Amino acid sequence: MSSRRTTIIAGSLLTASFSAVMILSGTAVAEDQGPGSSKGGKAVDEAPAGVKLTTQLPESISVDNSSQKTEITATVKNEGTKESGDIRLLVVGFDGLTVNGVKGCSALAEGDLPEGSNSGFSCAVGNLAAGKSKSYDVDADFDLSKTGKICLPVQTSDGAKTFWQQGPVPFGTTNPSPNAPATPLLLGTDNTPVAPGGDELPRTGGGSDVLPLGAAGAALVSAGAAGLWWVHRRPQQR
After folding, report:
1. Would you state the pLDDT for residue 211?
2. Does the global pTM surpass 0.85?
C-alpha cells in the first residue's frame, strides 16, 4: 500500500508539473507579438526586373491603457534576385494611431503628409540586396477611443515611384480591455473603441481606406486600386 500510494503521489506531482509548464508556455506565446505580416499590401508601380519589394508589420501590438503608448516594428524586404536600387520607406499614421518617431528616420513636413494622415516619417533604406530586409522601430500613440491605421509605402529615393504599399491597414480589437494594464490589438482588425458610445464611431473598413482623389481617384477605385494615395498626391505637391 505504501509503495502504491507513493507511486500515485509521484504521478500526481508529475501531472501538476506538466500542467504548470503548459500554462507558462501558453502565457509566453500570448505575450509574443507574433510573426510579421504583409496583410493589406499591394504592388503599385512596376519594380525593376528581379526586384520584389514588400513590407511587414507585426500581427499584434500592445497599447498601454494609461499612456496610450505602443511600439511597432516596420520591416521592408527585397524578396527578389537583384538589388533594389536606392529606395525609401515611409511610415504614416492615420486616425487614432499617431507615429511619434521612427529610429533613424526623418519626420515628413506637414505639407508632405498624405491626405487624411496625422503623422509620417521617411526612412532612407538605400540599396537593399536581394533576399535582405531592414527593420525600423516605430514609437507611436494609439487613442483607444478611436480607430487607427498605419501605412508603409516603399518608393524610389526621390518618391517618383511607389513599388509597394501596405495599408492604410487598421490595428484594433473587437474586445476592448479598459480595466487591464494594456490592450492587445490585431493587424487587419477594426477597432471597437473603449469609450462609452464608441460603437457609434465610424469603423475603419475597406470603404474608409479610400482617400479622396478626385475624378481620377474614382476611376482607380473602380479598377481596384483603392487606397493608393501617394502616387496620386505627388502632382499636387509639385
Report:
1. 38
2. no
